[in-house]
């Protein structure tokens, strides 16, 4: 079982990035998926999640209207489109899988860094 994030980088305020998370095996098709982030010196927080079916998404209020979570089941890939980025979005971003929707994100990727600066 493996989750591999990509797409992070440095961007100016107001810019956009799209994060990707590729999952191996059957994990993706049997899991709710989520994006989390952890800024330096802060606790990890949930950013967005999507149900296995892909029909239900949930966003943290801090990103609602700016970020979009989506999934491509054919590619076993989760995405996070991030627009109107702010310095407060600077963090390490992780994708995670909640296998069989057990309310337990037990599988995690290694993270990808997003830095937003002026």
Structure summary:
The chain is mainly β and 118 residues long. Helices cover 0% and strands 52% of the residues. The chain is built from no helices and eleven strands.
What is the topological layout?
Elements: E1 3-6, E2 9-12, E3 17-23, E4 31-38, E5 45-50, E6 57-59, E7 67-72, E8 77-82, E9 91-99, E10 107-108, E11 112-117
Parallel strand pairs: 2-11
Antiparallel strand pairs: 1-3, 3-8, 4-5, 4-9, 5-6, 7-8, 9-10, 9-11
Write a structural description.
This protein is mostly beta strands and 118 residues long. It is 0% helix and 52% strand. The strands form two sheets. Strands 2, 4, 5, 6, 9, 10 and 11 form a seven-stranded mixed beta sheet that branches. The N and C termini lie far apart (38 Å). The model has no long low-confidence stretch (mean pLDDT 95).
Features:
single chain; mainly beta; four-stranded antiparallel beta sheet; seven-stranded mixed beta sheet; 118 residues
